[in-house]
Amino acid sequence: xxxxxxxxxxxxxxxxxxxxxxxxxxxxxxxxxxxxxxxxxxxxxxxxxxxxxxxxxxxxxxxxxxxxxxxxxxxxxxxxxxxxxxxxxxxxxxxxxxxxxxxxxxxxxxxxxxxxxxxxxxxxxxxxxxxxxxxxxxxxx
Length: 141
Description:
Elements: E1 25-27, E2 29-34, E3 37-38, H1 50-55, E4 61-63, E5 70-76, E6 79-84, E7 93-97, H2 105-110, E8 116-120, H3 131-140
Parallel strand pairs: 2-7, 6-8
Antiparallel strand pairs: 1-8, 2-3, 4-7, 5-6
């Protein structure tokens, strides 16, 4: 099933800058807490349903102290994208995902494993008019 393969620990994402190249850094984020529920370490990573992630686009996302601020979180192009501020670490970051919606924990944990992509630094905003394309993709999920 596409999108459900587990990413090996420490594996770089395709297209991620290598070495000290300029530009945003792409790191794999790890979800260890969803809606206040701690997950066992073996369940850390990408256990979220794309439909939930769409709904969580406006949810509160809190990080550990690894980076200063999370400014945006959204589902886009088969990734859950988290835009963060300045990072104090180049390691895989741990993210606490908190939602104001009351989802059942088994719905959050059991449906699909999806890759996460963390954006550190500035991210170009989508151009006006790109919303229609987003809606089409959202409808096709």
